[in-house]
Amino acid sequence: MGSSDSKLNFRKAVIQLTTKTQPVEATDDAFWDQFWADTATSVQDVFALVPAAEIRAVREESPSNLATLCYKAVEKLVQGAESGCHSEKEKQIVLNCSRLLTRVLPYIFEDPDWRGFFWSTVPGAGRGGQGEEDDENARPLAESLLLAIADLLFCPDFTVQSHRRSTVDSAEDVHSLDSCEYIWEAGVGFAHSPQPNYIHDMNRMELLKLLLTCFSEAMYLPPAPESGSTNPWVQFFCSTENRHALPLFTSLLNTVCAYDPVGYGIPYNHLLFSDYREPLVEEAAQVLIVTLDHDSASSASPTVDGTTTGTAMDDADDFQFILKGIARLLSNPLLQTYLPNSTKKIQFHQELLVLFWKLCDFNKKFLFFVLKSSDVLDILVPILFFLNDARADQSRVGLMHIGVFILLLLSGERNFGVRLNKPYSVRVPMDIPVFTGTHADLLIVVFHKIITSGHQRLQPLFDCLLTIVVNVSPYLKSLSMVTANKLLHLLEAFSTTWFLFSAAQNHHLVFFLLEVFNNIIQYQFDGNSNLVYAIIRKRSVFHQLANLPTDPPTIHKALQRRRRTPEPLSRTGSQEGTSMEGSRPAAPAEPGTLKTSLVATPGIDKLTEKSQVSEDGTLRSLEPEPQQSSEDGSPAKGEPSQAWREQRRPSSSSASGQWSPTPEWVLSWKSKLPLQTIMRLLQVLVPQVEKICIDKGLTDESEILRFLQHGTLVGLLPVPHPILIRKYQANLGTAMWFRTYMWGVIYLRNVDPPVWYDTDVKLFEIQRV
């Protein structure tokens, strides 16, 4: 039968379904088989031939027919899984049912009245079914569907290579088959790499798309961090009820981490033949991050979450395989070749970042392995590249946040700060000033660029960016002159009166920067003559802060200026210098670009927990101070915590005009500015530098820098303050943010076919830039 006939018959069946007002019996196989038995329709055909309006019409006008369609399609998948899909016809039926369910499920999820349907046990009927629980066969439809998909993903000659030598042998018994021997790719827990098979990859992809669609019920519930928000589909699939949970998790992880888009290194190879592996890898990454999303504390799902990925996976070779794979894929869009467009560029870096985040967050052994490995810098550089590239694009705010969250998580560990001292020699073309220095220089220069030339919606991230710099600052051995000037420029911009007085929490940014300078002066003075010189040159900024006016007329005048200057930060005074060769400026989103809304992220005080570094290098968690008035109980010298905990009000209140600065408020934090160390440094060094300049008639910077390199402040500075690290701590707010972001990425990335497009999702809004 020709494919056009096949499509015509399929379309006729759909029309019959939508026009029948009477229920069609489940036993009427002649009618139902039209949807899967005789057709050879691609998933794109199914989406075209089953319009959204018609699915909704059946749902409203003849619900029993929609229920029977779903029930019969699941029944066919269960039969296929039971029989092992030996004939081509059986394989075709399974694929057709899979495509049809992928099309229909979102329209069942979008209607609250239908939400319980798949969890009911009476075939094609109402919500009850509780009375049949003693009947062993009365599984909810959702469970039957999920177990059938799992079986089919390890079905010999359909989705995995058969191990039987001859066709005369009876096919492998599906029930006795040990799927651990059929893992899709070598890597974690599996040494054998099966022969690539295009057909198997395509079949896996279709089934994974259906699985992802099952999990996507989460998209149709509004964001609610208070609810335990376990996704029943994910919870059951990852439970011990599914004997394939672990081999499938391993298969997905290995498929992603073993993928090499560059292939054999032949230029333009991606133009010569299509890479059927990439769509499978994308689908695998998306299913992986969703299965890792549900509540990790839930004991109901030990197989994938708690026991396996959380604690049992601790082999260094496995960790190395995962880290190398993710780093290779994240670095792919940065590959520069002499031939333009000669290497394939992957598009699923956001899913990879979520995967990396989940693995680090769940498995602390993996996180420590990452931090011990020099490969952590192969994760850092791509993240900084993405942050810099996306800074002007409103549709990529989510990407900016996840990149910053990962760096915040890493920065809570001393090893990360130490690693940043490695010289930066890879020249990835980025729209930043040229510098010679370390990975720490790269990080700070990119952060400066984000703060001074990112778009307005990134302002909530400034606290996070500077917290990262504070966390690594005690370990930075030598900052370049370019970087030192950038840090001083930020202090200059943040300490203008109009900026300090225009929002209740803007002064925290000044506290963070002062803490950075104090950490470097107290712990890394010897190698940081560039920074010391920059501080001396810009000493007036510190004097202005020490003498910050607190009288009402000056505050009023500063705010008047604020109204005339909407620009968030002064960009003058920062010598930009030329950008790196081959780079292009960060571009805003194309008009009309779709983006999904995100929930608000918690403030930095909720995102992090303070720890103090003891003399032996261990971290001691600091108890949050009890709420007390600002007059008593000042925190340790150089510690801004109390000041930035006070007056922490949502920025919206200042925007709506409810909040206004008072002299008392300014005094409450001005008195806590940690300026003692810097003032002492200036008191000692400025006269010496001036004397050298007068004595030798110097105008040359290099002589002064040489003097500062050999100078010492031992015994002249205040007693070093304890190092404080603000470590990321998991909380409900960020868990909800990640869920919203992850599903938003999955929604936007699945355009062929557009699985969820034009359905009534509730987790986020779809907006146009």
From TrEMBL:
Region listing for Disordered, in residue ranges: 552-662
Ranges annotated as biased composition (Polar residues): 571-581
InterPro entries: Hid-1/Ecm30
Pfam families registered for this protein in UniProt: Hid1
Name of the featured protein: HID1 domain containing
